[in-house]
From TrEMBL:
Organism expressing this protein natively: Hyaloscypha variabilis (strain UAMH 11265 / GT02V1 / F)
Name of protein: FAD-binding domain-containing protein
Residues annotated as signal peptide: 1-16
Keyword presence, Flavoprotein: yes
Similarity remark: Belongs to the oxygen-dependent FAD-linked oxidoreductase family.
PROSITE patterns: FAD_PCMH
InterPro entries reported for this sequence: BBE, FAD-bd_PCMH, FAD-bd_PCMH-like_sf, FAD-bd_PCMH_sub2, FAD-linked_Oxidoreductase, Oxid_FAD_bind_N
Molecular function via GO: FAD binding; oxidoreductase activity
Gene3D superfamilies for this protein: 3.30.465.10, 3.40.462.20
Keywords annotated in UniProt: FAD, Flavoprotein, Oxidoreductase, Signal
Residue intervals of the FAD-binding PCMH-type domain: 77-252
Length: 558
């Protein structure tokens, strides 16, 4: 259990005071035009949708205790809206959009709240629309467009979605972590355990139920509005508020796999070759723990339990070789810092989506000495829970993403850059830097042209590609030294990674929106032609810019 720090307590008190004042309707927020527009919009919402609008988060009025804490990143939790809305129907969302547009108040839409940066799905001084009550899962009898399907509410969490589908012996292409929300993942891409065989989530959506900028409730599919359907397949929050997704379903199977952890024998020699700044101000306790951690690592290596970064990287790349390649495999390879012991470990989350014990595709990993492995046959829900157990929320976050051609020398360089930059922030409380490799295969991309195609701009001839991403979790005060230091590291890693990949001729412009930092221009990576088409579609369907920068500034804008 983490204790609420004094700073966070102060923040929550300020938050409660401000919200309570709003509840009394006696305060005009800040006095600026936008604040009074939002104050009036919130009053109108309260009058039209009294049960769904909350000015205040005082204990009596909290609609759900985790309304704030359900955001994954602390930076999002700290954003204070003028009011919250928790709509229960498409009609509610339509009413809300009409009011918001009329008053010119800015807003944000939240499904599972796992976007990492402030204001991506929360509106400072505006209206935060929390879609949590759209959490139904319904099998569509008779299917959709000749395919078996299910209607999934945007506000559900993947763990609950899969549980409900399991009762019918079905699954869908969705998130791998049970706590992640449906909406955000489905609007950006959606890499799942079954993506090699069935494509990304956006290529499995047969129909969207959407609230458009003029408040219309519309069904958007390839047959009803092909341009908007194409734009929704990867275009993020720029085109409307989705209430439900009709998704293709697949038969549920058992799967094999789990987490594998590797200690590294070459980390200290590798670190010594890097251009590392002077040691950070460690305390006596952290220094002692560091000595202990490194001692444990050394002893484990002497006993033969360690591998090297090179062997781990080679094992990762072997899974993409023709002879090993497997349509039912999914692999997340990561290098992560363990702050308590001041050591780096490598891991492989390897999943085979058929009940095949020790599938050959992962044989290179099995040959590496490891210190922990949870590989076993299990239901998918076990693997979704396991992924969640290793990805705790409730920290500040800085992320970044890059796409490259698979290359041992380049991936070595990217790891070195990440190690070098992370070293300067190792002393920050609760720091967990980790860097992740995930492949995009020809099979995945081949689904991207189905049913009119998606807007990501990826071609089968580009594959195989690797998404190289990083996340840095940490604790600190809002806008404090920690934010400054970690943001600077994140920026440098992104810049140096891109420069290195370009210099080696292995850079690809695509940036996965769901792993990107808010500073990254993800739509540039979709290609100029696709971006221009997205802008035209936005102008056609949303001429007043309701879902663009003007009223919905958070998230990635076309
Ligand atoms: C622990 C963890 C595990 C992850 N695992 C995976 C994974 O396995 N595969 C993968 O592909 N990605 C994964 N991701 C990335 C994830 O897809 C993104 O973070 C995604 O944005 C989360 O969706 P959400 O609904 O929880 O987020 P939110 O923060 O609620 O939304 C994200 C964005 O989508 C917009 N949005 C949300 N709902 C709607 C809606 N109904 N209508 C219009 N706009 C909307 C928001 O405004 C915001 O801009 C993971 C992230 C984390 C933190």
């Amino acid at each position: 259990m983490r204790l609420l720090s004094f700073t966070r307590l102060t923040f929550h008190l300020a938050f409660a005071l401000r919200c309570t004042a709003q509840a009394g309707e006696q305060v005009v927020l800040h006095g600026s035009e936008s604040d009074s527009a939002c104050h009036n919009a919130c009053k109108a919402l309260k009058s039209s949708l009294p049960q769904q609008t909350y000015h205040s988060l005082t204990p009596d009025s909290v609609p759900a205790p985790d309304l704030v804490s359900s955001f994954f990143a602390i930076q999002q939790q700290e954003v204070i809206p003028a009011c919250w809305l928790t709509p229960t129907s498409a009609q509610d969302v339509s009413i809300a959009i009409n009011i918001i547009r009329e008053y010119g108040c800015h807003f944000a839409v939240k499904s599972g709240g796992h976007a990492p940066s402030a204001r991506m799905s929360s509106a400072e001084g505006g209206v935060t629309i929390d879609m949590r009550l759209f959490d139904s899962v319904e099998i569509l009898e008779g299917g959709v467009g000749g395919r078996e399907g299910a209607r999934i509410g945007t506000g559900g969490r993947w763990g609950e979605v899969y549980k409900k589908l399991e009762l019918f012996g079905k699954t869908v292409v969705g998130g791998r972590d049970r706590r992640v929300g449906v909406g955000g993942l489905m609007l950006g891409g959606g890499i799942s355990f079954i993506s090699r065989r069935n494509g990304w989530a956006i290529d499995n959506i047969l129909n969207y139920e959407v609230i458009l900028a003029n408040g219309t409730i519309a069904q958007i599919s390839q047959s009803t509005a092909p341009d908007l359907y194409w734009a929704f397949r990867g275009g993020g929050n720029n085109f409307g508020i989705v209430t439900n997704f009709d998704l293709a379903t697949y038969p549920l199977t058992q799967a094999w796999g789990g987490y594998n952890f590797f200690l590294l024998s070459d980390m200290s020699s590798r670190l010594s070759t890097l251009n590392l700044p002077p040691p950070a101000p460690f305390t006596l306790t952290t220094k002692l723990l560091s000595l202990l951690g490194n001692l444990i690592n050394d002893i484990a290596c002497k006993l033969g339990y360690c591998t090297t970064i090179s062997d781990w990287l080679n094992a990762y790349l072997s899974t993409l070789e023709k002879e090993q390649y497997d349509l039912d495999a999914q692999l997340i390879g990561a290098l992560a810092y363990v702050p308590k012991l001041d050591i780096w470990t490598a891991l492989a989350n390897n999943i085979h989506t058929k009940p095949t014990i020790n599938p050959p595709v992962f044989s290179a990993f099995r040959k590496l000495p490891h210190v922990y492995s949870s590989n076993r046959l299990a239901n998918f829900s076990t693997f979704h829970k396991e992924l969640n157990d290793w990805n705790e929320g409730g920290f500040r976050q800085i992320w970044g993403a890059l796409t490259i051609k698979p290359s041992f020398p380049l991936m070595q360089e990217l790891l070195s850059i990440f190690l070098e930059e992370s070293n300067s922030i190792k002393h920050i409380k609760d720091i967990i830097p980790s860097t992740v490799f995930q492949a995009i295969t020809t099979d995945e991309i081949s689904h991207m042209s189905s049913n009119g195609g998606n807007c990501l701009g990826l071609l089968p001839s580009d594959a195989p590609l690797i998404i190289s991403s990083f996340t840095i979790g940490y604790s600190g005060t809002p806008g404090g030294r920690e934010d400054e230091a970690v943001s600077a590291v994140g920026r440098r890693v992104r810049e140096r990674w891109e420069k290195m990949a370009k210099e080696m001729g292995l850079w690809h412009p695509y940036v996965y929106i769901n792993y990107a930092d808010v500073e990254q221009d993800v739509f540039a990576g979709y290609g100029e032609e696709n971006r221009e088409r997205l802008r035209q579609i936005q102008r056609k369907w949303d001429p007043e810019g309701v879902f663009g920068e003007r009223l919905q500034p958070g998230g990635f804008k076309v």
